[in-house]
Structure prediction request, 235 residues.
Amino acid sequence: MRIFMLTGAGISAESGLGTFRDPGGIWERFDPMKLATPEAFARDPDTVHAFYNARRANLRDAAPNAAHAALARLEQGLASMGGELFLCTQNIDDLHEQAGMRHVLHMHGELFKVRCTACGAVHEWRGDLGRQDACPACGTTGRLRPHIVWFGEIPFGLDMIGEKLADADLFVAVGTSGSVYPAAGFVQEARAMGLRTCELNLEPSDNARVFDERAYGPASEVVPDFVERVLREIR
Ligand code: BJW
Prediction:
């Protein structure tokens, strides 16, 4: 069995990382147009750096939950039976990797990485970032930015995403509201290619009616249940 899995902020909610659009979520407290666009960064880099410095500090204290751990078990289980779990996350946290996932595509980038807009080099960066920092590769000061896909920028890995969707038997979306494109359109693409589709979420998402199967509840419960069911089926 080959599974294409798309995860969103809901899978990390129980690890203490806020979601975006739930009541009290990040975009209810902060204006995305002032923080998560290339124009906002050009206009006011200090405010954008402060926002992502706070997010990095939050992530440094976070640990994976039972849902992340279950997906790492699924990756191993499917691989041992000749199948594949392709995990495409919209999340910029590293909780899938911390839980032991070997292969993760971060289509919206990674919080613990920065990119130099002078030379293009990408670097690991776990601490605060500011305009005073220099690129470790080319030495230019003030040209490092979060390695994150902001609104209006093209997500990473779209070619591979298309290939893996075409290759899969089952599409599963976990903890995503289905409101940000192009990720929100993957379920339609999957259906058009003849894949079965399944949604695991706290509550029905904007796309809920498009899915063949649905299970609702906290990710720490519905994801391990789903994983155990799949592992039983393939053994
Ligand atoms: C739980 C739970 C628990 C809670 N257990 N579940 C049509 C086509 C293409 C593009 C567009 C289009 N229409 C508009 C666009 C443009 C735009 C867009 O989509 N805007 C919408 C707002 C309408 N898209 C873009 O700009 C993208 N780029 C782009 O389109 O490039 C052009 C292009 C692409 C492709 C081909 C050709 C051209 C880029 C989008 C970048 C998104 N960036 C962000 C910020 C990242 C940095 C940061 O974190 O600061 O990414 S926005 C934010 O939303 C973040 C997330 O990855 C993303 C998705 O959010 P997610 O994960 O779904 O979170 P929530 O909060 O929305 O939902 C959480 C869910 O969890 C809820 O359902 C809860 O119920 C659930 N939940 N607790 C289980 N315990």
The pocket of BJW is lined by residues 8-10, 13-14, 19-22, 25, 36, 90, 92, 108, 148-149, 151-155, 175-177, 179-182, 201-203, 205, 218-219 (CB under 6 Å). The two ends are 11 Å apart (CA to CA). The CA atoms of residues 3 and 185 lie 17 Å apart. The beta strands are 2-7, 84-89, 104-106, 109-116, 122-124, 144-148, 170-174, 196-201, 213-216.
